[in-house]
């Protein structure tokens, strides 16, 4: 069950990982405007989700890992953003007016251009450790971090893993930046093939690997996607057509033929791999038959799988994230990240919530589980019951989770206490 502790605490570090990941480019020439990016990470199973227009938000498409934080995104007007990991500590810039939510997802829903996004950003201090490149269909772009805002003055910009404020003094070391810069600075060509070749030359392999690569035609809303270093077999989406089909959440890998290298990479994190396989089984065979099978594995004295309960817990958490993403029209599960917007009282119907509740009830009845882990399960169970409209059961489980801070993980204890005060 130690793997679960890592999974639960991942929320505390997700925006502060010091990894040398991702290459992001904006490129405008001859009236055309493109963006391109390699998305690098230590895990696979990347998602794509389509978010149709609402009365409050523009339509958009997002790309990210199973936590469903958008690594990269583009809206129906061609406004694009993508992040790179940095070592920048935003606290040294003393941010005061911090947006209490997912700042750039909000910008995606409200702004059409880089100019509008920069006006929006004047209201808030940038308090994120990563560095973002934003670009639009007009050919404008900017790279922003907690201490620097660099507006594009040439026909291209590149965002990799050094503080863009150091570019002027050449105080940086990044071969991916240099390779991209060499290709772009004297170029007279702008098309998918040209950008594909740059992404191919700047991809990463190994434990930290390029999971997927995207090229965005910002004027036409066309996105060309390549999966796990295969630049010969693209998947192309027309955003306008896809948004007309309604909300969807999919695995990027489902749009590509299975490859041995990606399978081996994905299996390097055994618990994550098993979680994803169980989710696939649920989609294929249905919730109840799948859960009954794995509950039996956890209880069967002869065939007992000592790790299955930990994997099932992660399945339950993922089911909530997936259902909430749909409910929030593509937004993240703010409660999981202890954001203020996550503590509102709301309820909605989704069969995935019922499945998550069944998983948590089954696990909370298990004997021999660490007290802190069990209280974490009760806290999640409380939240799922709240989303399903059962406030009495939610209060009961929240009281258990918030009974003793010494027996509950801090983030779980604090969420439970806050929810009890609201209820």
Q: How far apart, in Å, are the first and last alpha carbons?
A: 31 Å
Mean pLDDT: 91
Q: What share of the residues does DSSP label as strand, in percent? A: 15-25%
Radius of gyration: 22 Å
Number of helices: 14
Spell the H/E element sequence.
HEEEEEEHHEEEEHHEEEHEHHHHHHHH
Q: How would the global form be characterised? A: globular
Helix content: 25-40%
Give the strand order, joined by hyphens, for the main sheet: 9-8-7-6-5-4-3-14
What's the story with the biggest beta sheet?
8 strands, antiparallel
Low-confidence stretches: 1-18
What can you tell me about this protein's structure?
The chain is an alpha+beta fold and 423 residues long. Strand 11 and strand 12 form a beta hairpin. Helices cover 39% and strands 19% of the residues. An eight-stranded antiparallel β-sheet has the order 9-8-7-6-5-4-3-14. The protein has a six-stranded antiparallel β-sheet with strand order 10-1-2-11-12-13. 43% of the residues are buried. It is globular and about 65 Å long.
List the topology elements.
Elements: H1 2-13, E1 23-29, E2 32-41, E3 47-51, E4 60-64, E5 72-75, E6 80-84, H2 103-110, H3 114-121, E7 131-135, E8 141-144, E9 149-151, E10 156-159, H4 175-184, H5 192-202, E11 209-217, E12 222-227, E13 230-238, H6 239-243, E14 248-251, H7 260-266, H8 270-285, H9 287-299, H10 308-327, H11 351-364, H12 371-387, H13 391-401, H14 410-422
Helix pairs in contact: 1-10, 4-5, 8-9, 8-10, 9-11, 10-11, 11-12, 12-13, 12-14, 13-14
């Amino acid at each position: 069950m130690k793997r679960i502790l890592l999974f639960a605490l991942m929320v505390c570090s997700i925006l502060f990982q010091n990894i040398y990941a991702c290459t992001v480019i904006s490129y405008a020439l001859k009236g055309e405007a493109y963006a391109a990016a390699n998305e690098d990470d230590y895990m696979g199973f990347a998602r794509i989700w389509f978010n149709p227009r609402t009365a409050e938000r523009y339509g958009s498409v997002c790309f990210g890992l199973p936590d469903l934080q958008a690594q990269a995104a583009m809206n129906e007007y061609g406004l694009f953003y993508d992040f790179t990991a940095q070592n920048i500590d935003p606290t040294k810039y003393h941010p005061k007016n911090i947006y209490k939510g997912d700042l750039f997802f909000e910008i995606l829903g409200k702004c059409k251009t880089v100019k509008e996004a920069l006006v929006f950003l004047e209201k808030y201090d940038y308090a994120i450790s990563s560095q973002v490149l934003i670009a639009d269909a007009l050919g404008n772009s900017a790279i922003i971090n907690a201490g620097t805002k660099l507006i594009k003055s040439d026909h291209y910009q590149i965002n990799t893993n050094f503080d863009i404020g150091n570019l002027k003094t050449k105080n940086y070391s990044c071969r991916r930046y240099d390779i991209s810069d060499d290709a772009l600075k004297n170029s007279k060509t702008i098309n998918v093939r040209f950008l594909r070749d740059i992404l191919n030359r700047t991809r990463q392999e190994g434990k930290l690997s390029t999971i997927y690569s995207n090229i965005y035609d910002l004027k036409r809303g066309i996105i060309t996607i390549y999966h796990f270093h295969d630049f010969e077999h693209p998947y192309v989406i027309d955003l306008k057509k896809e948004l007309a089909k309604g909300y969807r959440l999919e695995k990027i890998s489902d749009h590509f033929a299975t490859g041995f290298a990606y399978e081996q990479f994905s299996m390097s994190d055994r618990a994550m791999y098993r979680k994803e396989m169980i989710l696939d089984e649920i989609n294929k065979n249905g919730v109840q038959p799948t859960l009954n099978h794995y509950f039996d594995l956890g209880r069967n004295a002869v065939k007992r799988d000592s790790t299955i309960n930990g994997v099932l817990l992660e399945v339950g958490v993922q089911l909530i994230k997936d259902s909430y993403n749909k409910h929030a029209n593509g937004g993240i599960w703010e409660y999981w990240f202890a954001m203020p917007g996550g503590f509102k009282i709301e309820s909605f119907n989704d069969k995935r919530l019922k499945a998550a509740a069944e998983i948590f009830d089954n696990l909370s009845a298990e004997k021999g589980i660490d007290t802190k882990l069990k209280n974490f399960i009760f806290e999640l169970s409380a939240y799922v019951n709240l989303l399903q409209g059962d406030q009495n059961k939610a209060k009961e489980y929240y009281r258990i989770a918030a009974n003793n801070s010494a027996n509950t993980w801090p983030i779980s204890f604090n969420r439970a206490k806050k929810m009890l005060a609201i209820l």
